[in-house]
Amino acid sequence: MNKEKKCIFCGRNKYYSPLKVFSKIQKKTVNYYKCKFCKSIHQYPTPDNNEIIKYYDSYYEVKNILNPGYLDEKNKNNLFYERDKTLAEIGFDKKNFINKSNVELGCASGHFLFYMQFYGAKDIAGIDISAKLLKSIKINNVKLINGDLSKIKKNSIDNLFMFNILEHIINIKETMDQAVTRLKKDSRLILELPLTGLISNIFKTKWRFLMPDEHLHIPSIKGLKILLKEYNLKIIGQTRFGSGFTSGSIPNFLKLKFDYLAKKFKFGDRGSFLIIFKS
Ligand SMILES: [Zn+2]
């Protein structure tokens, strides 16, 4: 890794020797570097923006190879159940959808847009980098925007949702700059993302979230907190979940047990956060 390259989360530039992970899509090995200070992980080099757009335009094909069913209609019920649980755990009251402007960055096939509408949201926008994914969404009275947060009016968002999107972004600082200029004072950012820590240390190169070209920057909780502080963002509710085991990799009763422990003792390899913007 380029010696000058600073960790996006903590700003330091010392790394451990790379974790080598094979990309099923590119059919080659890519390197992930762990920051020695905050223990966040970065893919380097990252693909360029055009490659990323191409990648998400072929997301249906890609997801069919890696996790079949992920973007399907059937999965919508599952998502409703997951989001119910998560929002309750971080302390986001669904009444907050009502009479507020709600924006989801990285809306993919739009399941969460349906969710917000179901719970009474009227002012909804979904943003995605892939025009093809947006075209697949059949929903009324929702703004669908191809691109990024720069297309949203400044100082206009009450609730910004970023579920499993930050880790996909090449230039996280640019996204954060755009986010905080679009958020109103005392507005909410709901963030969900994988986190490095105990579980990524155990699984090493086999960690489920080391997904080349998809996951470019994965913070530790320490790295995430440093980043948020820089933007006057304060965590007021959180949950950790996921034991690192994927369905079918171990017997289900064991997976349930490990998942339970990961949540209970807060070492899950994914986190959801309710964050307040103090401008
Ligand atoms: Zn770092």
Please state how the strands of the largest beta sheet are arranged side by side. Answer: 6-5-4-7-8-11-10
N-to-C CA distance: 35 Å
Order of helices and strands: EEEHHHEHEHEEHEHEHEHE
Please report the first level of CATH classification, the CATH class.
Alpha Beta
Largest sheet: 7 strands, mixed
Bound molecules: zinc ion
Note poorly predicted spans: none
Strand content: 15-25%
Q: How many separate domains make up the residues?
A: 1
Mean pLDDT: 92
What is the number of helices?
9
CATH level 3 topology: Rossmann fold
Molecular shape = globular
Describe it.
α4 (111-118) links the parallel β4 and β5. This protein has one domain (19-277): 3-Layer(aba) Sandwich (Rossmann fold), CATH 3.40.50.150. The mean pLDDT is 92. It has helices spanning 49-57, 59-66, 75-90, 111-118, 131-135, 172-182, 198-203, 221-230, 252-264, and strands spanning 19-23, 28-34, 41-44, 101-105, 123-128, 143-146, 157-163, 183-194, 217-218, 233-241, 270-277. It is globular and about 50 Å long. It has 279 residues and is of the alpha/beta class. The protein has 9 helices and 11 strands. The longest helix has 16 residues, at 75-90. Bound molecules: zinc ion (ZN). Zinc ion (ZN) is lined by residues 7, 9-10, 12, 35, 37-38, 40, 223.
